[in-house]
Design goal:
Blueprint: H1 17-43, E1 54-55, E2 60-63, E3 66-70, H2 83-96, H3 104-108, H4 112-124, E4 128-132, H5 135-146, E5 152-156, H6 161-169, E6 173-177, H7 182-192, E7 199-204, H8 216-225, E8 229-233, E9 259-263, E10 273-277, H9 279-288, H10 290-293, H11 300-315, H12 317-333, E11 343-349, H13 351-363, E12 366-367, E13 369-371, E14 381-386, H14 393-408
Parallel strand pairs: 3-12, 5-6, 5-7, 7-8, 8-9
Antiparallel strand pairs: 1-2, 2-3, 4-10, 9-10, 11-14, 13-14
């Protein structure tokens, strides 16, 4: 007997009641599944909601009619609001239009790209650079283009989600080593490397939720010893550490990292992602990275803004050193270990505690994000503070006083006042 839910509908009777009823039932089941999943997130205090936020300056934001000092933005140098960066974007938009029109391999490779990629390569000390549509698109494009099913990817367990996504898309064997634990990475490589054709060793340069630096010199030596290729995600390092050149330069001496990935949306102040590498690697990616080949190019104004921002990063030493200096002022005020980057995390444990503390700081005039799973591991929900060169010293002192007061209200919760 035929089943009207599964039979192929007749082309001359597409709108009969049975068909529309089936479609209605399918929509209902989809909505039921979505509602159930949202309900589960709500009960665990993990549901996110979009909040309209107006950024008025690099550090001032308004939400719901309340003006706040923002310590929740990755605009580490305030360059998204810099008049020269804005002027460069406007000029390029007037000259070239608001969009690239197509992928870069068709005709979307407008003249501004070459200059931006040249500046990125020079700043990072590499032969060449390739710009993608975003940091996420960079990682999900680069990793599968370099390794495949016969290969191994070994990455830090706290690496950004898009690094893991890229590794999984590559169909390689993927294993994680304990956070910043070089000995554990060495043990995994010793056990597994010989069974695989190629190996990629992957880490954040600065970890986005912890704010700590990866031990890049040790990882580079490990990679050389095991014939592995070291790749760093330096989204939060460029413009902030190593006199603006990023985590590969943070210790004062350049660490040889053959694959330096990063974004144009944090300290650079705009949008996009990039990889700095050898000419041959970059040329391969122009041909084989699917997220590059099949994505429309960035708008000309976005590329021009990034190019001008890189000029500022390369020349203004005082500006690029200020975010970490302010972060260290904050950690000193609260007797925390000195900040290693412009990011400081205060781990509170439960999602409920982090949300309450974030709300209390909002009422005190500060915008500070509560970070919850799956962004961070279960039981490590936290307040994540980010510092910009545009913050004033008095802003940081006032924030520290508010944090001290907020956490004092919660003595019974025993929050962890240390970066993880």
């Amino acid at each position: 007997m035929s089943d009207p839910l599964y039979d192929k509908p007749s082309p001359i009777r597409p709108l009969e009641g049975g068909g529309s009823g089936a479609a209605s039932g399918a929509r209902q089941s989809l909505d039921d599944v979505a509602a159930a999943k949202l309900g589960a997130l709500e009960r665990r205090r993990l549901r996110r909601r979009l909040t309209t936020t107006e950024r008025m300056t690099a550090t001032a934001a308004a939400q719901g009619g309340r003006e706040l000092v923002s310590f929740s933005c990755n605009d580490y140098l305030g360059l998204s609001q810099h008049p020269e960066v804005i002027a460069a974007s406007l000029e390029a938009t007037r000259r070239h239009g608001v969009g690239a029109g197509s992928s870069r391999l068709v005709n979307g490779n407008h003249p501004l790209y070459a200059e931006l990629e040249r500046k990125l390569a020079a700043l990072k000390g590499s032969e060449d650079a390739i710009v993608f549509g975003s940091g996420y698109l960079t990682n999900v494009g680069v990793i599968p283009a370099l390794v495949g099913a016969a290969d191994l990817v070994v990455l830090d367990e706290l690496s950004h989600s898009c690094l893991l996504a890229g590794a999984e898309l590559s169909r390689s064997r993927v294993v994680e080593f304990r956070h910043n634990d070089v000995a554990h990475a060495n043990a995994l490589l010793g056990e597994l490397r010989a069974r695989h054709r190629h190996c990629l060793l992957v880490t954040d340069g600065i970890f986005s939720m912890e704010g700590d630096l990866a031990p890049l010199a040790d990882l580079a030596a490990l990679a050389r010893g095991h014939d592995a290729w070291l790749m760093t995600d330096d989204a939060h390092g460029l413009g902030v550490v190593g006199d603006g050149r990023g985590s590969s330069f943070a210790t004062g001496e350049r660490v040889d990292v053959p694959l330096q990935m990063g974004t144009l949306s944090k300290a650079v102040g705009g949008y996009g992602g990039y990889l700095c590498a050898s000419r041959s690697v970059v040329e391969l990616l122009r041909n084989r990275a699917r997220s590059f080949v099949y994505s429309t190019g960035l708008p000309p104004g976005t590329v021009a803004a990034a190019s001008r921002a890189l000029d500022i990063i390369a020349t203004d030493r005082e500006l690029v050193r200020r975010p970490v200096a302010l972060a260290r002022q904050f950690t000193a005020e609260l007797d925390l270990p000195p900040a290693e980057s412009a990011i400081v995390s205060v781990v509170l444990g439960s999602a409920e505690r982090a949300l309450r503390a974030s709300e209390e700081l909002r009422l005190a005039g500060f915008l500070v994000a509560a970070i919850r799973p799956p962004t961070v591991p279960a039981g490590t929900s936290r307040l994540r503070f980010t510092f910009s060169a545009a913050h004033r010293d008095e802003d940081v002192r006032a924030l520290a006083a508010a944090v001290r007061s907020t956490l004092a209200l919660r003595a019974d919760d025993a929050p962890t006042l240390t970066p993880e």
